[in-house]
Structure prediction request, 230 residues.
Amino acid sequence: MRLLVVEDEVKTGDYVRQGLTEAGFMITLARNGLDGYHLAMTEQFELIILDVMLPDVDGWRILRSFREAGHQTPVLFLTARDSVDDRVKGLELGADDYLVKPFAFAELLARIRTLLRRGSGSNLASQLTIADLILDLPRRRATRSGKKIALSQKEFSLLELLVRRQSEVLPRTLIASEVWDMNFDSDTNVIDVAIRRLRAKVDDNFEPKLIHTVRGMGYKLDWEDGDACG
Prediction:
């Protein structure tokens, strides 16, 4: 599941991103309000973790504009502002939960999972399916034709990204950012190696082939693609 974290404090942002990544989530981290607002408005996330005291646009304004635009993605405020008035204001603006800093990571994780369970809609489905491939999101398990596929956490995250955005050509830069949280270096073949290993597990012993290379552009997952290039 894709989560957006909007947090300007470097240590807090890195801490939350690392912990949630290790918990199996795909994390996009914005360091300021404008970037966070743009990402929230233009990309699909299952949940947004939003700081209030941001250096450019505060979290109140971001949430107000986000809700006025009709977006219903769950939002959890993570902030040092701990007064009752601040909590009430956040909830009245449309926040789904409010956690005060400093916080225990276990509590943050529990609140996130509660909000995700509470939500509804296709983006919060517990299972993703394409052809005979099934991803069990809560258990982080993949099967194809009923056979379990042994995947590492990164491999599962990569496969989940491909399935969620099936039929889209995903550039290597996007894959590197979403799965490895790294800036893509054209001199490294880490993405190509990861795709090759994933393809060996997901496609080599099965039909139809799902993971396709689009030369000069990137990769996509599509079970009706007759123009596969490798």
Notes: Helices lie at 10-22, 33-42, 59-68, 84-93, 105-118, 153-164, 172-180, 190-202.
